[in-house]
Amino acid sequence: MRMICFIHCQTAELISYPQDEDFGGYFLEEENPWRQYKEKVNSDRSNYIEIEPMPSSIKYKLMEDFANTIKDNWLHDQLIKALTGKKPFAHFNALIHQVSESHKKAWFAFKQEKTVKWIKDQLLSDQS
Q1: Which of 55, 66, 84, 95 sits in a 20 to 30 Å window from 73, CA-based?
Q2: Contact (CB, 8 A) for 22 and 50
Q3: Are 63 and 88 a contacting pair, CB within 8 Å?
Q4: Are residues 91 and 119 located together in one domain of the fold?
Q5: How many CB atoms lie within 10 A of CB 103?
């Protein structure tokens, strides 16, 4: 979601704010609702770990791995087709929102599990 995310090393407090330095140009700096979070992190930067966003290549692999778990041949083929055409992320997402509730829930559970693992791996690698 184009957010920069940090986790505090001791308290596990999560802080996030938009990536854009000017926060999209929607606010004057003194009115910026995210300013306090950025200042909090910057004032204690050594105690925060930045959580890197998942690269597109890994997100793509995640969608591909999910598609390969689907037993329904038609849906599996449709997901793979969405991933191999133009705009694979948009087409995969649109298809997921059109499938049965059970498949939709399966995707979001799969995605969450892999995202949590991605974050844990970052935190563990930062400690070594």
Answers
A1: 55
A2: no
A3: yes
A4: yes
A5: 17
